[in-house]
Design goal:
This protein is α/β, with parallel strands linked by helices. 39% of the residues lie in helices and 14% in strands. The protein is built from 17 helices and 12 strands. Helix 1 crosses helix 8.
Amino acid sequence: MAGPLNGVRVLDLTGVVSGPYATMFLADQGADVLKIEPIGGDITRRSRAVIDKAGEFSALFISSNRGKRSLSIDVKSETGREVMAKLVAQSDVLVQNFRPGTTERLGLGADELRQRHPRLIYVSISGVGDTGPYVKKRVYDPIIQALSGFADIQSQPVTGRPQMIRTIVCDKTTAVFTAQAVSSALYAREKTGRGDHVQVAMLDTMISYLWPEGMMQYTVVGAEATTMDPNDRPDLVFKTFDGYITCGTISDSEWQGFCKASGDPELTTDERFATPGARFVNATARINKMQEYIAQHTTAEWLERLDAADVPCAPILRRSEIVDNEQVVARGIIAEFEQPGVGRVRQPKPAAQFAANRSVIGGPAPRIGEHTREVLRELAYTEAEIDKMITEKSVRTATS
C-alpha cells in the first residue's frame, strides 16, 4: 500500500540535519526523495563516528537519510546545472538549507525557479531567516538554543546558569515544522494549481515552539513583571530508593491520588497544595515535599501505587533501556533492517501512522551517488553520456 505522498517528487538539496530530517519524513510517507550530494558526499556522512569500512556512513546520516535516492553531482559545473534544470522541471518540491544568497549564485534561487515552474513548491530552511542583523551568522543548533530562550529555560534553579539541552532539538523541531508546511503547500496547490515559497527559520520555529508554556509570562502585554516564571522550579525528576521516576500532579484528582499513594493523611490537609492555583504558586515546595515521600520506596513500589491512584507516572529510562522497554516493544516502535556496508541497524518507525495510506521506512540510507546512473537514465541521458560525466568528475556513482 502506497504512502500518502506517493507520486510526489522531492529534490533534496539540504545538508546537516534540519533539511535531511524533514525530507526523510516525506520519504517515510511515500514521496520519492532524491538527495543531491556533492562529489564528496553530505558532511554528516563523516559526522562523529563512522560505522562502515568504506567511510560513507555515520549513524547520524542513516537516521536522517533513510529511504532516499542519492545523486552525487557538482552543481557548479555546466553539466551539473544542466542536470539540475531537468530535475527541477520534474519535481514537485525543492528543499534547500544553504546560507542566504547561495542558491541565487547557483542559478537555483526561489524567484527564478518559481517563475519558470509555477507549480514548484520551493522550501528554504535557514538559521535566523533572510533579514535582520544576524542574517550572515553561521548558525548551528546551540546558537538557536541560545537565541530562542531554550538555554534559559534549562537554567539551573539555584545558580541561574543557562544550560544547553544535549540533543539538536532546534534542528529536529525545525524539520518537523518544515515537513508539515510542505504537506500544507501540497494541499494548497491541489486547490489553486500554483506552488509557493515556504520559508522556515530555526529561530522563528523555536520561539513558536517554546511560547505556550515556556514564555507564558510574556503573553499579556504590560503584565510581564507580575507573572511567575513557569520554569522557576525544580524539574519533575524524583529519586526513588533505587532509581528515578517522574510524575505529574496538575489536577485536583492527581494531587489527591498522590496524597493517597504517599500513605500520609496529613498531606491532604496542607493548604499550600489544596488547589491548582496554590500548587502552582508553591510549586517548589510541592515538588520538594513529593521528593521526601518518593525517596522512601523503590521505583516499582511507587509506579504500582501511582498507577493504582491514576496519577501520571513513568520510570525515567536510561537510553540503554529504551529498546527493551515493554511499551516500546509492544508498540513495535523500533524497526530493524539491513544497511549495506554496515550491517543490521535500528530505526524508529514513522511516528504518524495512516489507516488508508501506510507510512513506512522506505529502505536504507543510500551510498554516495548510488542512484546517479538510475536518475540520469530517467532524464534520458545515454550510457555514453553518463560515462563521460563520470570521467569528467561532474558526477559520481557508487562505484566511481
